[in-house]
Amino acid sequence: xxxxxxxxxxxxxxxxxxxxxxxxxxxxxxxxxxxxxxxxxxxxxxxxxxxxxxxxxxxxxxxxxxxxxxxxxxxxxxxxxxxxxxxxxxxxxxxxxxxxxxxxxxxxxxxxxxxxxxxxxxxx
Length: 124
Fold this sequence. Notes:
By secondary structure, the chain is mostly beta strands. The chain is built from no helices and eleven strands. The strands form two sheets. Strands 2, 4, 5, 6, 9, 10 and 11 form a seven-stranded mixed β-sheet that branches.
């Protein structure tokens, strides 16, 4: 069982930055691939990026490439999403998820555990 708690969301102006954190419980954190997803109002959940259990492999959606960076700190059981050059279209509820597998997946249904989400609002 893994419990995930996100933090770091908020209101930021376009061009600004935010760093989201996802703190995980459990002693086998490194066994889980972690993903970040977002859902904008009226839209379907969208994959943002993911990181392997070791942190060696990362994969980003096209919308995140060059602006967002995922990292993980195994000592703190925490995954981060650094978001730079934010745009109004990045406004969404951002959630982290854990997957008990070695590969990163873009499919939300392939993740086993989810956090409650944190709101990110980017004003123009």
